[in-house]
Input
Amino acid sequence: MDNPLVSVVTATYNMAQFIDEAIYSVLNQTYENVQHIIIDDGSIDHTRNIVKKYLGDPRVEYYYQENKGQTVAKNNGIKKAEGEYICFLDSDNIWELDKLNIQVDAFKRINPKFKIIYTEQLYIDGKGNKLPTPEIKRYEGRISEQLLFENFVTFNTVMVKKACFNELGLMDERLQRSIDYELWLRFSTRYDFYYLPNMTTYYRHWEGQMSQDKEQRLRVALQIMDDFIKKNPELLKQSIIDKAWCHSFIIRGRYKASKKEYHEAIKLFIKATRHDPFSLHLWKSIIKMTIPGKRNAI
Output
């Protein structure tokens, strides 16, 4: 099909202040063959009233459910998706208006072994002003090894072939955080990822955002990584696993040091040495923590 249907899943909870912009950025795409599935996870604000004005557009489907969390809401959206491709746009984020067109065109021209396409994103604040965006190294192909060190596949930028969910299942409903990290690790065991350097998505950082709970995210990501390694013992070399564990403990240790929890940081750095005692990143982090003038920069 020249213009395959793209299903867009937006799970929302009390995001009336932002959801209007999100919906607008979907319905005004230069690519028009879209199914926009909005799953309202029990909002008690005026989200329903914001969405109501769009329900005259046959591309929009709105479903209200009892509050069950974002993972269940996203999975319910996936189940209702009829498109060949699935994308996700959280209700506080925005797309460039050519986002879908760029990715559908890419799928037409790249090797069919690629099942997931992701792109760059730009950070904005609650008012839509641009924020400094960290530079992250991206990878493509079978990326299990690289994902152990960092989740660089930006969730709101992806376009995924629906067949991937049919074959490997939906998001893990035991999780409420880092659900995309678990999903990409699982998909990376079977599918190739394709990276487009285009900036397609505005990712909003604002007060009250769930993803700002960094300590909890780090803890959950560590558990996801541990589960993945145990489930796929033949996939990765032991040397890579050791480096990944070392890296994870360094990240957590640096976070503890930034919170002036130096005793906890030291314990985490010691754990890191057990996996990769010659890590330059590890020893730089330890040295920075022991020099008072460098602690704030850790």
Q: What stands out?
A: The longest strand covers residues 192-204. The radius of gyration is 20 Å. The first helix runs from residue 16 to 27. The mean pLDDT is 94.
